[in-house]
């Protein structure tokens, strides 16, 4: 099992960074969240003049055995159909990547369909979907390790190109189910407060989903020794695309890369990653709060304040991509604004 050497950024530059921000020709604190973002990015990069270079977006795809229990309104085949749509440039994620200049990598880690003939999709298929976690672990220890390694590998590819800011998205029908379970188990939150409509379940569907997940959690606790360990919880319920995202987050933090976090699914992955390596949170910027039930509470568990609230619930990493211009503005602020002395403006505080 791979381990990651992740430490919070050195705070030695904090005073110098704050002095630079406070001496920009503006009232102290007047640019609000942009100032705290600039501080975070300066600390991550250990630089008074940070930069954003070669932004990349990783989109992992995988199917879920739990989908067989009718916990999603969308059928399983939507996963592979959307993966091909992304490969052809027709998804929301494609549009936002083009808009903001992100290099997009589409990775099949567990889609229940043969996508190997599509050159735009990177083939790292571990299996054609996970097992049904109602009855046992979603994946084996070996499969878990492969998913973590695949996520780390993709970050290494981006890093080799000069990338220092990365966003991550997912495509996997029914992946709100493992996300809800992770939220409950990692956050000590009653399961009924974590389960939502996903892609559009009605009240009857939500109640059925809750019943299935409650049975799955009971079975897990009965069958699994040391069930409270993070790796066991992640492996038992997770999707290959979600575990790959966790591996990507951990490797990105190890490389001191800024990580843009998307909606409910990726925030659940961020929570899971933080249980493995708590300092990973120092490298995360949370793009938005979505409409999925429990997302705001999930963010609160991480002590995270999202940048946007646009009612988004698409997934794919689109909310993280939408937040990028704000992050860019924070970096431009600290690099491009004049200070009081150079502008010959009286400093009035």
Could you give the topology of this structure?
Elements: H1 14-22, H2 32-45, E1 56-62, H3 77-87, H4 92-100, E2 103-110, E3 121-123, H5 141-160, E4 165-171, H6 176-187, H7 203-223, H8 230-237, H9 240-254, E5 258-261, H10 264-276, E6 284-286, H11 295-301, H12 318-336, H13 340-343
Parallel strand pairs: 1-2, 1-4, 2-3, 4-5, 5-6
Helix pairs in contact: 1-2, 2-12, 4-12, 5-9, 6-8, 6-10, 9-10, 10-11
Please describe what this structure looks like.
There is one protein chain. The protein has 349 residues and is an alpha/beta fold. Helices cover 46% and strands 9% of the residues. It has helices at 14-22, 32-45, 77-87, 92-100, 141-160, 176-187, 203-223, 230-237, 240-254, 264-276, 295-301, 318-336, 340-343, and strands spanning 56-62, 103-110, 121-123, 165-171, 258-261, 284-286. The radius of gyration is 20 Å and the shape is globular. The N and C termini lie far apart (53 Å). The model has no long low-confidence stretch (mean pLDDT 95).
The helical percent reads 40-55%
Structural class: alpha/beta
One letter per element, helices H and strands E, the order comes to HHEHHEEHEHHHHEHEHHH
Q: Profile the largest sheet.
A: 6 strands, parallel
What is the count of DSSP helices, taking H or I runs of 4+ residues?
A: 13
Judging from the principal axes of the Cα atoms, what is the shape? Answer: globular
């Amino acid at each position: 099992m791979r381990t990651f050497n992740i430490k919070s950024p050195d705070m030695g530059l904090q005073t110098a960074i704050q002095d630079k921000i406070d001496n920009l020709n503006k009232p102290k604190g007047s640019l609000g969240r942009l100032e705290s973002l600039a501080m975070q990015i300066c600390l991550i990069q250990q630089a008074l003049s940070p930069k954003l270079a070669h932004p990349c977006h990783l989109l992992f795809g995988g199917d879920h055995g739990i989908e067989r229990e009718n916990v999603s309104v969308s059928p399983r085949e939507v996963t592979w159909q959307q993966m091909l749509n992304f490969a052809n440039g027709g998804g929301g994620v494609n549009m936002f990547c083009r808009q903001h200049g992100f290099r997009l990598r589409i990775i099949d880690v567990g889609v229940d369909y043969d996508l190997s003939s599509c050159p735009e999709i990177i083939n790292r298929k571990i299996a054609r979907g996970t097992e049904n976690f109602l009855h046992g672990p979603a994946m084996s220890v070996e499969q878990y390790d492969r998913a973590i390694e695949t996520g780390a590998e993709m970050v290494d590819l981006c890093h080799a190109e000069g990338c220092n800011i990365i966003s991550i998205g997912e495509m996997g029908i029914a992946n709100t189910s493992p996300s809800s379970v992770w939220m409950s188990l990692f956050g000590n939150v009653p399961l009924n407060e974590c389960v939502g409509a996903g892609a559009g379940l009605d009240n009857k569907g939500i109640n059925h989903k809750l019943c299935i997940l409650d049975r799955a959690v009971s079975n897990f606790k009965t069958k699994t020794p040391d069930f409270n360990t993070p790796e066991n919880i992640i492996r038992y319920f997770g999707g290959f695309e979600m575990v790959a995202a966790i591996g990507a987050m951990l490797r990105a933090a190890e490389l001191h890369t800024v990580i843009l976090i998307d909606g409910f699914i990726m925030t659940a992955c961020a929570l899971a990653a933080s249980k493995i390596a708590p300092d990973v949170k120092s490298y995360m910027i949370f793009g938005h709060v979505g409409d999925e039930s429990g997302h705001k509470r999930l963010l609160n568990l991480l002590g995270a304040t999202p940048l946007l609230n646009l009612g988004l619930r698409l997934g794919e990493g689109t909310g993280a991509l939408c937040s990028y211009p704000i992050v860019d503005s924070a970096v431009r602020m600290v690099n491009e604004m004049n200070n009081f002395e150079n502008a010959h403006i009286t400093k009035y505080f």
